[in-house]
Amino acid sequence: MLIRRLIPVLVVSSLVSACGATYIEDSLVETSTSMVDTADETADVAPTFAEHLDIIDQSLNDLSDAIVENDGSADEILATILQSWETIEADIKTDFPDSHFGFYEVITLTELSVERRRPADASKAWKLFIDIAASIR
């Protein structure tokens, strides 16, 4: 019986004791205006068409070694390539329709090289990319 009476008393006393006043020293609190100003200054700028081509070029160059190392970085590199490709594909279709199929071959070969873990296919895709990209630069 004593335990049944003691439990509600403990619950109520713990709830009441948690309701104390809270005081925050104003001098210790940072203002958020400096953080907002910094965020405006460091806004990311989207890469240009030429920068996306450079990203794909460098990524394809690194892909063969990443496949050989088999440490998961090949999947990250592929994701970077596909993201840049997705961004510029419409521009290539519009501005360079004769080169679109060649770029499509590069992307397909790149995906297969990672999927099948074939570094030779990644190297082949990079060499093909160099030729196609040179024709539109």
Give structural notes.
By secondary structure, this protein is an all-alpha fold. The protein has a domain at 49-136. 77% of the residues lie in helices and 0% in strands. The protein is built from six helices and no strands. Helix 3 packs antiparallel against helix 4 (73-95).
What's a concise summary of this model?
This protein has helices at 2-17, 33-41, 49-69, 73-95, 97-115, 119-136. It has 137 residues and is mainly alpha-helical.
Name some characteristics of this structure.
137 residues; mainly alpha
Shape designation: extended
Fraction of residues in H or I helices: over 70%
| Main sheet summary | none
The H-and-E topology, N to C, reads as HHHHHH
% residues in beta strands? under 5%
Number of helices: 6
Helix- and strand-based class? Answer: mainly alpha
- Amino-to-carboxy terminus distance: 88 Å
- Write down the overall mean pLDDT: 83
Please tell me how large the radius of gyration is: 29 Å
Number of strands: 0
Given as residue ranges, the uncertain stretches (5+ residues, pLDDT < 50) are none
